[in-house]
Amino acid sequence: MASTDKPGGDPEYRTSSTPAPAGVDYFKFDVILRFLLFAASLVAVVVIVTANQTEVIRVPQPVPWPAKFRYSPAFVYFVAALSVTGLYSIITTLASLLASNKPALKTKLLLYFILWDALILGIIASATGTAGGVAYLGLKGNRHVVGWNKICHVYDKFCRHVGASIAVALFGSVVTVLLIWLSAYSIHSRVPK
Fold first, then answer.
1. Which residues constitute the signal peptide according to the record?
2. What residues pair up with 64 in beta bridges, in sequence order?
3. Are 134 and 72 in contact (CB under 8 A)?
4. Cα(164)–Cα(157) distance, integer angstroms
5. Backbone angle region of 25, left / alpha / beta, with phi > 0 → left and psi within -120 to 50 → alpha
6. Which of 82, 121, 141, 153 could be stapled to 176 by a disulfide with Cβ–Cβ 3.0 to 4.6 Å?
7. pLDDT, tens digit, for every residue of 46-78?
């Protein structure tokens, strides 16, 4: 069967001698956002770890009763998750700095960043949610369950530290979402149109 194609071939399937577009280079913003993620993780961990407070509670007789982050598994998970996030942000900041000088490595690295950033976002969000749930119980209590009374009127310094740490971790979650969007947009801008 004879081909009915024109000598030039189908323009849609023709190979181009021009290279693919370089795309928009946002690696400087990527480094800044990754540094912000590190700072947010570090601040959140330091603030919650220093949230120790001891108050005298009057049960039949006065007893000193401490409140520490390590007494709640949710807060321990929060500290562990944000510590992992801080380490991850250091590693990826260094990788971004090294890749900024090597254009061939940038696109592949962006794809890996999207995948790992999404995983880290899940870790940060789950840790912030669990710590936020426990903090809310400390603030408001649960009148439907015996023994789940509010404690923030007694342990005010501890609750302020926990609340501030959760707020900073929430900022870290937003920074991670921005990192994912930035990487996705950078990859999208590199796709030939």
1. none
2. 56
3. yes
4. 11
5. beta
6. 121
7. 999 998 776 667 777 677 777 788 888 899 999
Inform me whether the pLDDT recorded for 14 exceeds 80.
no
Report the C-alpha gap between 135 and 180 in whole angstroms. 28
What are the residue ranges spanned by the domains of the chain?
27-190
62 compared with 100, residue with greater pLDDT = 100
Extract the tokens encoding 12.
Answer: 């849609």
CB 78 within 8 A of CB 169: yes
In the numeric block, the tokens 């995948």 are attached to 115
- Region 73-85: what's the mean pLDDT? 95
